[in-house]
Amino acid sequence: MRPLIFPLLLLAALPAQAATVAEASSPDGKLKVELDLSNEGRLAYRVLRNGEPLVGDSRLGFILRNGRQLLRGLTLETQSSRSFDETWEQPWGERRFVRNHYNELRARIAESNHDRRRFDVVVRVFDDGVGFRYEFPKQPAMDEVQISEELTEFAIAKPATAWWIPAYEWNREEYLYGRTPLAEVGMAQTPITLRTDDGIHLTLHEAALVDYAGMNLAKADGGALRASLTPGSPAKVVRRTPFTTPWRTIQIADRAGGLVESDLILNLNEPNALGDVSWFKPSKYVGVWWAMHLDQQSWATGPKHGATTENTKRHIDFAAKYGFRGVLVEGWNTGWDGDWFANGWDFDFSKPTPDYDLQGLAAYAKSKGVHLIGHHETGCAVSHYERQMAASFALFQRLGIDAVKTGYVCDAGQIERQDRPGDPVVREWHESQYMSNHHLRVVQAAAKHHVAINAHEPIKDTGLRRTYPNWISREGARGQEFNAWGNPPNPPEHEPNLIFTRMLAGPMDFTPGVLSLQGRGQPLQSTLARQLALYVVLYSPIQMAADLPENYAEHMDAFQFIRDVPVDWSETHVLNGEVGDFATLVRKDRNSEAWYLGSVTDENARTLEMSLSFLSPKHRYVAEIYRDGDGAHYKDKPFAFVRETRVVTHADTLTLRLGAGGGAAIRFVPNR
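User: That's the sequence. What structure does it adopt?
Assistant: Structure tokens below.
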């Protein structure tokens, strides 16, 4: 009998056999998603590209707090498919028209015994990637669903390099991106960007995060990445049926630039729910802000207070003179005195400090053709904020303040929630289900008063700006302020990382344009020309000229580009780039025939050649070039700078020489 032992052991070690029960392919036929069920009734999916596995067998399912897990004993009950193709128009954005073209599979999954609980797996396959989600119908066996964990996996089938930041750390999303082998990824936030060893680029993220916990990714068995939902109480997610989860997304491209050009995240969100939003005007702004990070002024009242009537008028005059629509003022309201970081409950969002004439300044700004931008720092006392926000937005609407920067400054996991006055205060994470709902409450309340929201220390962007176009921008990464006091400041590779990671989620209020190149006792790791390029490569429908007004007077030649560059586009293309190394983007102004180019590099100087075939053959263009000068280097020659013009056509090729930590910005204007 001894010869039988080895074959029997082999059979015992074999994985459960699985059968493909449903599939869908992309419109161009290159991508295919297959759903499998094992003989134990375990559900999994895989993604094939040109017939080869790109995402291997990846588990689907849930661990529930108030019921048995949805993991095994599952069957395919029904399936259906459809195709969809539309082109929709963004009210503002990286491009005006977006094509939404996919093939969809809907698979009804049911338990084979017990209560026969059911859910659908809905898969949409685009030419540029895949989105899938779970949909729970109303059913007697599942009224309230308490999700302890979602078991969704991403088993990348090929060795890959990953660019990622850690999850569940104290400083929220504000970390430098690490570059590691995929096998060394720890607990990661999304978006996480991957490049397989054979050159395929992927980004894992989510779309339409509504009434659900944000998804992070953790290492699972066999090297896969598994969903890790942000904690909440009594479970990570509590929903009543019917409901849908957010879309789990995989963007796929041959080149890094293809990820940037993908509209998959937006397309997986619902259409505009607000109707006409023409009251929001994409624009640039200045503000009472950078001096605070330089410690020249303070948010708190006193001799260094920045938000004074006199100082704000100075910024309004500057904005009016040089064509900026907005003036942001932080520290204008009561509550900043004392330790506001530990006590956001003292903020009053309708009461200005004694030295700040809110109504007078709003009228003064209006007389100059300028709008004040409001600021609501919550100190993470979010329930306290919610009780005031309707009155605060109504006040701003009366004063013509049509945009507000919100803030949630506290350590991760320290959001303060109090459901009713007098209840105990409990703590939440910034990306919990509770905060997902909080941010939507803010955006919806603001929309009623025609106010746009730019959230800092926010929940991650998942494309909800399509549904709520007044959610115009957010932070959610290391911004310019780290160049004032960060230890370390942002290195030159930071922005080439952001372009292919964080920026794939949506607009970022990075606050570029510090032409003094000087922080708080430390220089920026940037050349002068690079600061101009950031207005093109880092997208936002609002962009700040972040430096002090007096510093722009020292660099009026470079400042001209900041004055000219728009923030609303009809087209966007990536001419070249590699994650974390360099990138060149071109964008066409939505309101003219002009094109704008931005190019940035890491700590390495580069010479880049690019075709100008994106220009219209109908015109000759004057190229207004702002570039690094000879020997430009972020360490010892950051102000080496050249501004020049030449006439070009779509048939020309342009050579750009970028210094270390450098960049270039170009405005192409039809020569009439």
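DSSP finds 13 helices and 37 strands in the chain.
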